[in-house]
């Protein structure tokens, strides 16, 4: 297997942090978003604006992880054993979360408990379910793309982009009955493949990446401010939808994620052991902090972020970003300990087998 570059591994780390930051807003500050009325929004306008900007990094980061997978699929052949560590890790944290939930007497049911034993099938981690399915389909997708000429590849990309990105951005709920997160992520996988395909010679530079990042960021910020101002003018609850264009099927998310991927891909960075090591902890960070049982404990019971929107803007920023940093670091350390313990058990098991 080709050794991955530290610049891409650094991108994984940044992406996971912004997923944690995204969740600090979605599951924390915006936990009761649909209950907030116009007057509360008007009194805390700055905090709502900041939240709508910070929230945008979540789906961008999800897209980046799939772009990376597609990018490396060109030169790496899929093997079923590649899924085993992911399945074991997901199962471990799903059951760990269940045990913590039962110990703390959280509301559970037989249905919820069963789902924790089959986290992939029941999408207890929606991204992991999509990711596993994409890995299973990857060999077939790659064969298809390799056997299509450039013209057919281009047409395929245009059709998928129109269905999954362009139309949903321009028309709310457009193609909603035929598209979902999985179909959009398939588009990102294919895009990642194109960015590294030997058949499709794309003249992509750091400047291209910076342009995509800049223009998409500007347009997203403009959309947030426009919707919020419209809410002020109409004195309505439109502010609840100000982050609409941060969804996975947004053209702004597509442009920003592809642009950021290009920027990091073109970055000159020597291979660093610590970067490559830390990047291996990122899946664990996701599985811990977004666990069904741990999620409300982290954002509401420990940090009380659902109360943060009414605070001073500086204090609000400290709470949101600070809590994300703390959660990110602690989850990474927990995953590191899990890796060490699992490696010790595995080595002991192999030692016994070889005696």
Describe the structure.
The protein is mainly α. It has one domain. The chain has 15 helices and no strands. α1 packs antiparallel against α4, α1 packs across α15 and α5 runs parallel beside α13. It is globular and about 75 Å long. The mean pLDDT is 92.
Q: What's the quick description here?
A:
With 355 residues, this protein is an all-alpha fold.
CA-based shape: globular
Structural class: mainly alpha
How many helices does DSSP assign? 15
Kindly provide the radius of gyration, computed on alpha-carbon positions and rounded to a whole number of angstroms: 21 Å
String of helices and strands: HHHHHHHHHHHHHHH
Mean pLDDT: 92
Beta-strand segment tally: 0
Span between N and C termini?
Answer: 30 Å
Q: Quote the beta fraction.
A: under 5%
**Which residues sit in consecutive blocks of at least 5 with pLDDT less than 50?**
none
Helix content: over 70%
- Sheet with the most strands? none
In total, how many domains does the architecture comprise?
Answer: 1
Fold topology:
Layout: H1 6-29, H2 38-43, H3 45-54, H4 57-72, H5 83-103, H6 110-117, H7 126-147, H8 150-170, H9 181-196, H10 206-234, H11 251-266, H12 273-279, H13 282-289, H14 294-302, H15 313-353
Helix pairs in contact: 1-4, 1-11, 1-12, 1-13, 1-14, 1-15, 3-10, 4-9, 4-11, 5-13, 7-9, 8-9, 10-11, 13-15
